[in-house]
Amino acid sequence: MSNVVALDRYRPATQPERLIIATIQRCSQYMEDRRKVTTRRYLTLNNAMSSVVRRALIDGRVGDIFVIHHGLTGLGIGTVRINAKGKLSAKWAFEE
Questions:
Q1: 6 lies in some domain
Q2: What is the pLDDT of residues 2-50, one digit of tens each?
Q3: What is the pTM of this model?
């Protein structure tokens, strides 16, 4: 008996491409903070929407803009903004 095992069995499965992209644009008085654009990739739109709203509530500051768009087409899906009172205002392309 041989201890040789086929390598295909242990090859990692390919993961699907994450085409939904969320970018975070900081609104700060310091230019180095404004230049930082954080990008996150998501597999589904449901995950992207819930994560962006959660991140806006937890880490967001007044004036921050969270933009969700498609990676291949560049189509804007929606934006989440934090206004001066600290409330979220979301605009989605499918609501119009």
A1: no
A2: 555 555 566 566 777 888 999 988 887 777 777 777 899 999 999 999 9
A3: 0.74
